[in-house]
Write a structure and sequence with these properties.
It contains nine helices and no strands. It has about 170 residues and is mainly alpha-helical. The two termini are about 20 Å apart.
């Protein structure tokens, strides 16, 4: 496993990233799926796929499709943050997103708990601090919902919150 433009990961780094992915895919997502079901999510995903390219909702549908993921009820607001803020769905970017969101004011147990997994990735710590600071400088999006913002232009929303740097795709480390 190799990160983009960086040296190959050692065995410990690979294991840490697998644990982070496992925490999301084998723990958090199944809990949300059991609590809220999936029928509503399928209808919502069909709606998002019909939205114009460049809207936040279409971006969510596209990133889920690209990563072979499903829309999970009550988890879609997390997915909107990936698109809005320009974070990929990799273990490193998941941690960076959580650091950003913590800096942005989300001190929920889910956010803090997941970010505690960063103890396994000391190579990412400097970047996490930068993303936390970026979250502090940006207008709060903690309460944003996909239902409310799906049809809006992603680039315009980034400018609205003071984050035009994300407009090129993925955040800069």
């Amino acid at each position: 496993m190799k990160t983009q433009g960086k040296a190959p990961l050692n065995g410990y780094q690979m294991l840490a990233r697998k644990l982070i992915v496992h925490a999301r895919t084998s723990f958090l997502i199944p809990i949300f799926r059991r609590l809220y079901g999936a029928a509503e999510a399928r209808a919502q995903l069909r709606y998002l796929e019909q939205l114009p390219v460049g809207t936040l909702g279409r971006g969510v549908a596209d990133i889920l499709r690209e990563n072979h993921l499903q829309l999970i009820p009550h988890y879609e607001n997390h997915d909107l943050k990936h698109v809005l803020l320009g974070y990929a769905m990799t273990p490193e970017d998941e941690l960076k997103l959580k650091a950003f969101i913590l800096g942005n004011g989300d001190w929920s147990i889910t956010c803090v708990g997941f970010l505690l997994l960063a103890v396994l990735t000391p190579d990412v710590w400097p970047a996490l601090r930068r993303h936390y600071q970026r979250g502090r400088r940006t207008q709060s999006i903690v309460g944003w919902t996909l239902t409310e913002y799906a049809g809006q232009c992603t680039t315009a929303l980034r400018h609205q919150i003071g984050l035009p740097a994300a407009a090129t795709g993925h955040m800069v480390a």
